[in-house]
Amino acid sequence: MIKKIYSAIALAALVFTTVNVNAQKADTNLPAWALGPFVSPANVNPIISPDTSGVFFDPMHQQLWHWESNDTFNPAATVKDGKIYVLYRSEDNSGKGIGERTSRVGLAESSDGITVKRFPKPVLYPADDNVKEFEWRGGCEDPRVAMTADGTYVILYTEWNQKVPRLAAATSRDLLTWKKNGPVFQKAYNGRFFNMATKSASMVTKVVKGKQVITKINGKYWMYWGESNVYAATSTDLVNWEPLVNADGTLKILFSPRPGYFDSQLTECGPPSVMTDKGIVLMYNGKNGARNGDKNFTANAYCGGQALFSLADPTKVIARLDKPYFIPEAPFEKSGQYPAGTVFTEGLVYFHTKWFLYYGCADSRVAVAIYNPAKR
Question: Within the chain, what is the greatest distance between any pair of CA atoms?
Fold first, then answer.
């Protein structure tokens, strides 16, 4: 009798496990407005991993420093001279946990979007400069990059001084030398949002004659931003940004986490948004809450979501995926600094008529997935 009870329990556990494994799948049956499905090329990922041998002369420590020895993740991406360039966050081993080490931004180039060649030194990092107080000791985190029609590259990244994370802007013509412009909300509304935690900015882009470039809406540049909610901001120069606010001066929330869904805890903006004939597609990173999330997906995991904003009113959400289009599946996406599983999307580029999506894997590696519209 006891053996029969144990057998029944084992069978029930097997059935339960099978149901959950089968349920934990990305949604590949996407609506016409969404981008995807994105498919990871076979036997190539991760394309960037930590390197314990690389060193550069760090201006803050005044010595050679192993700048990407612990983790490499959360990449931006853009195109220059017929190649894809990936700008990825790297962490040294100067601390014990997430947010306690120093981050710098490394650079890699690729002719096919898959095989990359890394540059030996970081291109954006803390130094004894005009923004030292905002970047030391935490560093430069989580870049998103896009290009203007005239070839200026703009990075929106997080300055982290281990006190307050602030969205900041940097500009470049060659991707190697960057002008740091400081916190993007420093001047807006007399500095009302300057000392507030701000992260994750997605500038609105558009494909024009085969090139993905930053575009304007009603004469201004737009970005979606935020971690716990999705907000918006506008700019005339891509450096100083003004958040959209309500009549009472509070930030205007465009959409928020949803209890019972894969994005129940966070809706963190991802790579540059894309303007299409159907609307503006925002790809974001949804965190699945442990208590109020979608039980079909791992608690605390980050999965990819998409929302569509109106062209007539860029603050209005007209569609949103109820299931993630992208989830952690590979072992390296579920092991590392963040073992709950993370596919954290930050880089999206249109290259040779395909979309290349670059993402961080468990806060430890960089990988790529590709969407070919011709095969949809």
Answer: 78
